[in-house]
Amino acid sequence: MNTSPLSLDTQDTLARFRAEFVIDDPSLIYLDGNSLGRLPHRTRALIQDYVDHRWGQRLIRGWNEGWLELGERIGGKIARLIGAQSDEVVVAESTSTNLFKLATAALKARPGRRKIVTDDLNFPSDLYIFQGIVELLDAGHRLEIVRSPDGIHGPVEGLAAAIDEDTALVSLSHTVFKSAYTYDMAAITQMAHQAGALTLWDLSHAAGAVPVDLNGANADLAVGCSYKYLNGGPGAPAFLYVRRDLQASLRNPISGWYGQASPFDFGLAYQPADGLRRMLTGTPPVLSLAGIEPGVDLLLEAGMDRLRAKSLQQSEYLIMLHEAMLQPLGFRLNSPREAARRGSHISLGHPEGWRINRALIEQMQVLPDFRAPDNIRLGITPLYTTFDEIHQAVQRLRTVVVERLYEQYPAERPAVT
Questions:
Q1: Do 110 and 257 fall within a single domain?
Q2: Domain annotation covers residue 81
Q3: Residue 109 counted as domain residue
Q4: Which of 83, 144, 165, 298 is the most exposed place for a label (fewest CB within 10 A)?
C-alpha cells in the first residue's frame, strides 16, 4: 500500500462526498461517525423547507402530501443498502422499541420454545430489552448469553452449542459495537433455522458501513438505527425489517394507531394492517424522519461496494500505522485482524485508554469515543473520513502517550463517554 496519506486521498474516488457534509471546524479530526454521523448540507436545506413550507404553509394538509408514506418510502431506500425488498423495511420509532416489537412477536410465533440466544458482545440495551420481555411475558422464557472467547470475536462455536430445539430466537449484532467483529449472517441464520428458531439482527453498526444481504442470508428480522453511518441526525427514528413471507404471521405487541388497517375509521377494535405496516405503532416524528433521507441518498449515490472498499483500505491503513507507531507504546488491536470479519471502526486498547481518550479530545483536536474497559474506538466513515485525518490521529495518539499528556486527567469517567 502507498503509505502517503495525501497520495491516497488524491486517488480516492469518493473524495467528492466530503464536501456534501457540514465541516464546521476543519482542524477537528472527527472519528466518531460510528456513534453520530455528520450533518449533510442537503439535510439542513430539507429541514428548513419542511419548517418554512411543508409545515409552516401547508399545515395539516401535509399528511396527505407525503407525510403518511414517509417511513415506508425512506425504508424502501434503506432496503437497498441492506439487501432487502422495498416492502420489507420501514422507518419507525426507536431501535429499542422496534427490537421489543420484533422479539416479542418472534417468541409468540414460536410457542413451546423458551430460549433467546445472544452473546456478550451484543449491545447491552438489546439484552435489557430481552430481559424485560422475559419478565413481561412471564411464560418461562430465558435468555442465554454466550461468552466470547476473547472479547473481540463472536463465539460461533458457543452459539452452535447453545442453539437447540428449545430456542425460539437468536439475536445478535451483525457488527458488534466494541470490537467491530462482523458475523457471517448467512451461516448463523442457517444454524438457527436448522434448529427451527428465528433470527433477529441488530444492524446499527453495520447499515451503511458494511455489506448486508438480508434476503441472501434468508434473515427473518432486523432492526437498526439511522444516526450512525446513515447520517440521519441525533435520535433520528430507527428502521425495522421483516421478511415478506413472515409479515402476515407476526403480531405487533404494541398495537397502535398507525398499525391499524383503517386508522381513520376510528373503529374501537384493533385490526392489523396488511404487510409491514402492521408493525407500526405511533404517529411518526415528521421532521426528524424526513432528515434521514439525504444521508441515505448519499450512501446510495456512493454505492456500498465502493464504500466498503474504501473502508477496508482505510482500516488496513490505520492498523498498519498502529503496528508501526502505537503497538510499541502498549496499544493492542481490539478489533479482528481479518478484514472480512471487521466492520468500519477500529478499537485500540490501552491500560490508560480513558485518560488518553480525554487528552485526544481536550488537547489534540481528535474526537473518537471510549468503550470500557479500555477501548478507544476510531470510527471510519468513508463518505467523509480522509487518509490524512487517520494519519494525523495516530500521530497525535502517539504524542499523548510519549509526552504523557494523559496524566493530567482523572481516572474517573463521567456518565456519558
A1: yes
A2: yes
A3: yes
A4: 165
Among 70, 34, 79, smallest CA distance to 240 is for: 79
The residue from 18, 115, 178, 228 that is catalytic is: 228
Whether residues 193 and 282 share a domain: the answer is yes
* Same-domain check for residues 280 and 323: no
- Domain check: are 90 and 185 in the same one? yes
Residue 227 annotated to the active site: yes
Find the catalytic residue in 227, 229, 239, 387: 227
> What CATH number has the domain bearing residue 328?
3.90.1150.10
pTM > 0.90: yes
Name the domain count of the chain.
2
Q: Is residue 36 part of a domain?
A: no
Domain that holds residue 206: 45-300
> What one-character-per-residue DSSP string does 340-366 give?
GGB-SEEEEE-TTHHHHHHHHHHHS-E
Annotation marks residue 377 as catalytic: yes
Q: Is 229 a catalytic residue?
A: no
Catalytic residue of the set 50, 377, 398, 406: 377
Single out the catalytic residue among 126, 202, 220, 369. Answer: 202
Q: How far apart are the first and last CA of the chain?
A: 34
Torsion, Cα 73 74 75 78, to 10 degrees, reads 130
Exposed/middle/buried for 42, CB within 10 Å: 0-12, 13-18, 19+?
A: middle
Are 279 and 292 part of one and the same domain? Answer: yes
Q: Tens digits of per-residue pLDDT, 268-287?
A: 999 999 999 999 999 999 99
Averages of pLDDT over runs of 10 residues in the chain (417 residues) are: 87 97 96 98 97 96 95 98 98 98 98 98 98 98 98 98 98 98 98 98 98 98 98 98 98 95 93 96 96 98 98 98 98 97 98 96 96 95 98 98 96 76
Please indicate whether residue 123 is annotated as part of the active site. Answer: yes
The whole-number pLDDT of residue 1 equals 59
Q: What is the pLDDT of residue 417?
A: 65
pLDDT at 313: 97
Do 256 and 396 lie in a common domain? Answer: no
Instruction: Kindly state whether residue 75 falls inside one of the protein's structural domains.
Output: yes
Q: Do 60 and 160 lie in a common domain? A: yes
Q: How far is CA 91 from the centre of its chain?
A: 14
- Active-site residue, from 21, 50, 100, 123: 123
Same domain for 187 and 240, yes or no, is: yes
* Dihedral (CA of 242, 247, 250, 251) sign: positive
